[in-house]
């Protein structure tokens, strides 16, 4: 019997819809370009036409781009690549193969970011990365300086500061100062930017000369100002990226922080003015776009897009500059990105640009145009990946715009001795903790959604929660964990219950009863119809990960994309109204939600979204904890009514 055409079409439509639901979403541009890079350099990073790998700033640039892709995706292959690359260079004692401190070359400091990342991560022999970072920092102690205190770009480039050097040295210097608790470093970093602003900004255009020679002896140097003669796009790009990147580490109350932000705000309208109105790109010699031989250049254009969009995201720049960045990004994709054999290629990057040396580079318009273009040059690929990440983040910023996520540091208040500074530091489910025990990656997810993450180190009073939209309490301490734990009191319960009724979103993450102060925590949870039981399930033995499997049932409102989670040794829930189960496992209630007044409560019996189980390095890929963390963060922000 023939089926009616209408029925057949309906079946085909249902089949297509089901296929669309199961088909993996296309990877974003940042990942596609990062994957293409790994395809070109599967074992080691070869720079330009070199036959052997060496410690290099392009290496550092790419490793930073890969780190950002890893933070955004939770895909361990990007982290693994970083670690394998560093392990080709970093020896057990912290010495670095091919690196020579006595060269005093600022270019050699850029890979220090990756060293600092691994030194703070749960990896074997993390101390060797810390020691290597200290080697690089030691270089700055002896780096030759101008009379005013500016770093020479290299020992061989006497008396010279170049725009390039600000990216090569200052973000590493600032990050090191933060990680090693050396706050005096920030003063020196700020000084380097102040000297560049003083000596390299053209008062007429606001554009920036590539370099200056304090002695005014170089043939390229203006005899009055010491400046080189032209505005090279990538030089300005290095400087622009350095500005927005050092601000990631500068203390909020540092006296020079606001000046750095003013530098960002000074540069942005200059870049907008010189952007090509048709293509959205920028010219190699920025102010002479129409001059014969000049051309749109990929690396500088990528750096400018990154600078502008990151500046908008972090509130340094007016939102109108997002339009400039979007136009630039569209221009990058149209002008420089191509597909080759299923991978991406990136064209249009000038191979190099310098001053002096042998053969001599005079900084003229003709000189910059004489340098060849390269396809897939890392100085373009790395900034493009970072620009793409910023543009991808921009698409989701509205989810958490003007929202603040508070994380309790009062009921959970554990300390350890820092392996880096030797000083006591907070750890265990904190935003700052990048080791297995921390919430660094989940915090990054909230920030990528446009929210602000803060810690709440005091008891949850009305004043402490003012301005907080989502408040997360994780694994309150037992006496075994903290000498003088802070137990939840009746006063705490009243404050939090009233706060929820007024529209707050409360997250309660317990643990199995052996590792969590359940009794007092349950007095709070009871207000919402929730009790954490003394029944622990998913008791995983060794690496039998399947014992921790939790199916995130399709159709649940909290996890629209993630399907399978890994949650081990969790306390099950006992519920009564207003609480309702979201995820169950056989007879056990695993995750619940309660509505009270204008607010919402989310409860689960384990802090399952800490780095160990979201960074992709431990559990098999079938367990989608990273995506589940993104789903949950999005849902929590959407519930906020405050």
Structural description of this entry:
The protein has a seven-stranded mixed beta sheet with strand order 10-7-11-12-19-18-17, sandwiched between helices. Strands 1-2 form a two-stranded antiparallel sheet. 39% of the residues lie in helices and 14% in strands. It has 642 residues and is α/β, with parallel strands linked by helices.
What secondary-structure arrangement, pairings included, does this model have?
Elements: H1 5-22, H2 29-40, H3 57-73, H4 76-87, H5 112-119, H6 126-142, E1 160-162, H7 163-179, H8 184-200, E2 211-213, H9 233-246, H10 257-274, H11 298-313, H12 320-336, E3 337-340, E4 343-346, E5 349-350, H13 365-370, E6 373-374, H14 378-394, E7 404-408, E8 414-417, E9 424-427, H15 440-448, E10 452-456, E11 470-474, H16 490-501, E12 505-509, H17 518-525, E13 530-537, E14 549-551, E15 564-566, E16 570-575, E17 579-585, E18 588-596, E19 599-604, H18 625-639
Parallel strand pairs: 7-10, 7-11, 11-12, 12-19
Antiparallel strand pairs: 1-2, 3-4, 5-6, 8-9, 13-16, 14-15, 17-18, 18-19
Helix pairs in contact: 2-14, 3-4, 3-14, 5-6, 7-8, 7-9, 9-11, 11-12, 11-14, 12-14, 15-18
